[in-house]
Amino acid sequence: MKNQITGILPSSIGNLKNLKSLVVLNNHINRTIPRGIRELSQLIYLDLSSNFFEGVVSESHFANLAKLEILDLSSTSKKSLILQVSSAWIPAFTNLEILDLRHLACTITAAPKAFPSSHITWDLNAEIQTMREEMPQSAEEAGDDHM
């Protein structure tokens, strides 16, 4: 799906409270991923892959995304995207099945010790530039604690 959409993802995206799927892959969307995305509490599928995002993505971006099952940030930047989460962070999404960070040129400040599901499909074929803590190799290493 290449629509060649250009520009930014507006923070007002958070006003779409009942949105279940946000798929804007393979476009020319740039700048930061807006914090307003955290207001999409009904979101199940979030695919921002193959765009040109930069800046910081933090725990607060995902704070209310409890229903999220698929998160795809793969190949999102040729610039600098910082995934900033603490190792103590326990994500709100209890149903996450797919976490795709392939070819993500970014800095990860910490790897969460516990993810909500032991059956997450990890795809971390990463071009990660800096990691201050070790990323778990599998969901089992991350912990199989459920929230």
Automatic annotation (TrEMBL):
Can you tell which superkingdom this protein's organism belongs to? Eukaryota
Entry keyword set: Glycoprotein, Membrane, Signal, Transmembrane, Transmembrane helix
Q: Where in the cell is it found?
A: Membrane
GO CC annotations, alphabetized: membrane
**Is this entry keyworded Transmembrane?**
yes
Bilayer topology annotation: Single-pass type I membrane protein
Q: What is this protein called?
A: Uncharacterized protein
